[in-house]
Amino acid sequence: VQLVESGGGLVQAGGSMRLSCVASGFSLTSYAIAWFRQAPGKESEAISCISTDAIITYFIDSLKDRFTISRDNAKNTVYLQLDRLEAEDTANYFCAGRGACGLGGYDYWGQGTQVTVSS
Fold first, then answer.
1. What pLDDT is stored for residue 1 in this prediction?
2. Mean pLDDT of all residues in 66-83
């Protein structure tokens, strides 16, 4: 039972990237999934969460216009679309699952995928 992220890499400032969070060993349909990120030397921060019925919560208002969360239950996958990337977005991005959206108390965690934005 695990969450596996992919889609990270190196991108120039202003570019876009789509991250994926795939569930292995269980169905995502019963879980809210959140994306977090942790930049070097900083604490992790919650970005956004999508509930089982696709209601979206943004924890960082300033990212609402550039980052978009979505889910495809048929593919057991949650996505995070990153647009107009900035150097400050460089971080390890990881997903987590629990019954309902919230800032903490997640049951499942992925290892993360690194996003590096060059200026």
1. 78
2. 97
Q: Which of 106, 2, 114 is nearest to 46 (CA)?
A: 106
Decide: 71 and 33 in contact? Cβ < 8 Å: yes
CA distance 35 to 48: 6
Read off the DSSP letter of residue 85: -
CB atoms within 10 A of CB 12: 10
Token code pair at residue 62: 């300033």
**Helix (H), strand (E) counts: the chain:** 0, 11
Cα 14 to Cα 19, 86, 113, 116: the distances in Å are 16, 6, 19, 12
CB-CB contact of 1 with 24 (8 Å): yes
- The pLDDT tens digits for 28-38 are 999 999 999 99
* Rounded mean pLDDT, 27-51: 96
% of the chain with per-residue pLDDT over 70: 100
Nearest alpha-carbon partner for 96 in 9, 18, 42, 31: 31
